[in-house]
Design goal:
The chain has 236 residues and is an alpha+beta fold. Helices cover 14% and strands 33% of the residues.
Length: 236
Amino acid sequence: MGFLDHASNNIILDAVLTDVGRQFLARNDGSFSIFKFALGDDEVDYSIVRKYGRTVGKEKIEKNTPVFEALTNQNFAQKYRLISVSNPNLVRLPNLTLTADKIDATTNVITLGSNNSKTARVTVSQKIKNETSIDPDLKDQTFIVEMNNLFLRLEQKTPDNIDGQQRAVYILTLQGLESDQGGTQVQFSLSTKNITPAQFVVFGNISNKNLIKTQVKVTGVQSGAVLEFQVNINQR
C-alpha cells in the first residue's frame, strides 16, 4: 500500500494485494482475512534532518519525498518497517550481529559444501553501540529468517511459507538466550539441500560454475533490525 500525494489537498491511497494475499483470495474458502498491517519509511532520507535540522528537515521530507507505489512482491515491499517504542528519550536502536561456523569474519560470508561440510551453526545476537543496555521494547521475541529454498534449509524446522520465487520463510521464537548487553539471541543450524550438478550449471557463479552464492536475511520483529549475509556453496 502506498500514499500518493498529487496535490496539496489530495492524498490518493494506492493499495494492492501481495502475491501471497492473492493466493489466499483465490482459494475462495474464507481463509483470506486482513487482521493486521505494517507501515514503512523505505523512501525517507533522514540525512535531510541532519542537514537542515528537525523542523526544516521534517518539512522538506514531507513536501519533497516521492512515495513508492504499492508492490505486489512482499519480498521487496517495506524493507524498513516502523516500530512503536514507549521510551520518549530513545536515541539509539540495536542491530543484529552474526557469529557462525565456517564463516570468514572479515566478510561475514559462510562457506558450505553440497556434499561435505553441509551444515553451519549460526548465532544472531542483538547489539547496541554507545549504550550499556537495550530498551525492553526493542528486545526481539521473534525472528524471521528468509532464504532460497532451492539451496538452503534450517535443520529440524519447517518453513512457514514458500512463495512463488522459492523464498522460504521461517519464524523462530525466542530461545531464552541473551547477549552481553541484555539483548536476545537466536540460534539455528543452516544446511545445504541436495543440489544437483545441473543446478550448479544454471545457478552457479558466472566465472565459477562450481560455486553458488545465495543470501540469508534475518529480521528482528520487535526491533525491526535486519541482518543479511552471504552463503557460498561449493560443489564438493
